[in-house]
Amino acid sequence: MLFYVSYDCNRANVWYEGDLAVIKRKRKEIFMKKTVARKAFAAASALIMCGNTMAFAGESTGSTTTPQFEDRVALDVVAFVGSGELDGLRSDPVSKYIEDNLNIDLYLTAVTEADWPTQLSAMLADNDLPDVFLLSDPTKQLPMLLESASVLNLEPYLEEYAPNTMSDPAGQLMVAAERMPANSPDGNMYLWGMCKGSWDDGTVPTCGHYLRWDLYKEAGYPKLENYDDDLLDVLEQMVALEPETADGQKTYGCGAWFGAGQGWGEWVFTFGLGPQEGVNLMETTGRVLGVSTVDSTPLETNQLTDPESVFWRAVRFYNKANQRGLLDPDSFTQTSDVYSENLKAGKYMFNVPGWMSTDANTEFNKTEGNEKTFISMPSLTADAEDRFGNMYRGERQYVVNANTENPERCVALLDFVSTYEFSRIAWNGLEGGMWNMEDGEPVPTDEYLKVTKDDALGVETGINVYHHFCGFGNGTIQPDGYTTDLYQFSTKAMEAKMNDTIKDFIDHYGAESQVDVYRQETPVTDSMNYISFSDPEGEVASWVNEINAYMGKNVFKCVACESDEEFEAMRDSMIEELKASYHVDEVFDYFYQDALAQAEDVAKLVEMNNAIKK
Fold first, then answer.
1. pLDDT at 81 exceeding the cut of 90
2. Tens digit of pLDDT for each residue in 544-560?
3. Dist. CA 395–CA 114, nearest whole Å
4. Dist. CA 350–CA 213, nearest whole Å
């Protein structure tokens, strides 16, 4: 069976092979091993005097408060983690570090957001849920788990077993958000957010307008003041300067992966313009609702029926690129994997996904003296953009099984991996391996900056095994003033990546650093999304699904239109059909009113976040 995964913000996309029967068999084997271990632990525990089995050991290295448990237990955890080893007990040093600190045997099962929903439903039906597990779609899955009394209310355990989270302002903000009506039916905390903070340092936004700056410089820095027309003119000049790749392929201004179809195939429409102009299109709403990246104020116009919305302007951009021969014709059939390889081969001058730009630049830099570089442009027209974000609630959501034998240890585990200290370890391995503290600064080794981050490295060092089961995203600046991901965003790493092209970009804007360019060119670059919607019920849920299916089937036809007149006619026809047959206005009103009703909760979260920034 094949699964496809596409997830927001850190939007990597991979094909995975899996078979539910195999997965269930593996977990049965793990269960048998755990049963043997539990019997051994029970025998050992009988020798221990009665009393409180947990006491605070004070601070460990860094500022983490680690609970000390006398009895060793086994925990079964299903998480979005590295898959370099077979499911079960891991051998990497970071896994051992967790086990030693919490006195547990950690049986780890790796899943993705694509394959987990099917497995979760089967495990729930079999009453075979793990102790701690990922929710890939909390709005749908949490109500299902609550109805079956399968998810633990975390409130009774927070003060005693989550001291790090409850004493950290960012942790307190996450907890407050999880108690909001959109995330909890009764004001109690059931969900635990991981990957708070940011995925980048502002220089590599997840959704950006990335240009081959080396060619833009060679073209003489042509006028680039808007997305709709100037950008296309610039791309045309850049293609003229480099009409072929090094291996003789024809180059294009841009490409896409429409071949992926509904959802992921539409990504460049959903995220290709909105974040760069201060708008988040809410996918839960079928993208009818947009909200401000500054304060989550809902936009008053329906984004699917307004022909000048950020969504339709992005569609029009790719149509115009297609008309001018700037869009790779393979875009209509290729997948994202093929697109990414084409990008790394130098086939495109423009790109949106930040992680793909990083991959391309890494490939370019394999050539000695390379100047070929994708650089994120400041917002071309807007006063606000989504650049320095804060995933205050956490991008990954986890829960604890209500029937676990060890609720205290489960909460302690969630708290431990949510610390700043562990997050740096999750991204870089243990101190003394690929990085060291030098005069209070975490510094990567020369070797670390040259390695390839892959499964083999994860098995050897633990690096990136827990990158989606830790408290903070890799771009998060920690309380010590240094970044979480030393491989990508440390001072030493940034200096190693600096070439004449990046220096020219900084000099062109008269700034001291790349980050300073964005701060000075756009008034508001900090972004937050405080709005959170519960999954709609009944006919609204059906309408959203129908809208998504209709758009996924027809929007690519607009890109293929051969003239502006044909494009406008098809776009307007789709808008009219949405209004007439897909309840698009009712869906918009439903979510718009929901957003307005959240104003008080949003104000509370804004106040808490502003206090953190101070």
1. yes
2. 999 999 999 999 999 99
3. 15
4. 10
Mean pLDDT score, 404-414:
98
Phi-psi region of 251 (alpha: psi -120 to 50; beta: other; left: phi over 0): beta
What pLDDT sits at residue 532?
Answer: 82
CB 216 within 8 A of CB 238: yes
Q: For residue range 318-347, what is the model confidence (pLDDT) as tens digits?
A: 999 999 999 999 999 999 999 999 999 999
Bridge-based pairing state of the strands 104-110 and 73-79:
parallel
d(C-alpha 252, C-alpha 9), whole Å: 26
Single-letter code of the amino acid located at 38: R
DSSP secondary structure letter of residue 217: H
Average pLDDT, stretch 132-158? 95
Provide mean pLDDT across the span 4-11: 32
Pull the structure tokens for residue 546: 């129908």
Relative orientation angle of helices 407-417 and 420-428, to the nearest 10 degrees? 70
| List of residues 6+ apart from 448 with CB closer than 8 A | 428, 434, 435, 486, 487
* CB-CB contact of 120 with 114 (8 Å): no
HEC sequence for 321-337: HHHCCCECHHHHCCCHH
- Is residue 462's pLDDT more than 70? yes
Q: Check the CA dihedral 198-494-383-315 and report its sign.
A: negative
Q: How far is residue 341's CA from residue 351's CA, in Å, rounded to a whole number?
A: 13
Question: What is d(CA 405, CA 416) in angstroms, rounded to the nearest whole number?
Answer: 19
* Distance, C-alpha 298 to centroid of its chain: 22
What's the CA gap between 527 and 205, in Å, rounded?
Answer: 11
What pLDDT is recorded for position 54? Answer: 30
Long-range CB pairs of 237-245 (<8 Å, 24+ gap) are 238/211, 238/212, 238/349, 239/326, 239/349, 241/215, 242/215, 242/346, 242/349, 245/345, 245/346, 245/347
Q: How many angstroms from the chain centroid is the CA of residue 96?
A: 26
Buried/exposed code over 491-505 (b: 16+ C-beta within 10 A; e: otherwise): ebbbeebebebbebb
pLDDT confidence bin for 49, thresholds 50/70/90: very low
Burial 188-200 (b: 16+ CB within 10 A, else e): ebbbbbbbbbbbb
CA distances 607 to 73, 604, 610, Å, are 40, 5, 5
The residues, any chain, with a CB within 8 Å of residue 614's CB and separated by 6 or more, are none
Strand partners of residue 74: 105
Gap between the Cα atoms of 470 and 260, Å rounded: 30
Residue 395: CA count within 13 A, CB half-sphere: 23
Q: Is the model's pLDDT at 149 over the cut of 90?
A: yes
What is the pLDDT, as a whole number, of residue 70?
92
CB-count burial class (<10 Å; 0-12, 13-18, 19+) for 488: buried
What value, to the nearest 5°, has the Cα angle with vertex 579 and ends 577 and 582? Answer: 80
Which residue's structure tokens are 């220089």?
203
Return phi, psi of residue 15, to 5°: -85, 135
Length of the chain measured in residues: 614
Q: How many CA atoms lie within 13 A of 561 on its CB side?
A: 21
Query: What is the percentage of the chain residues whose pLDDT exceeds 70?
Result: 89
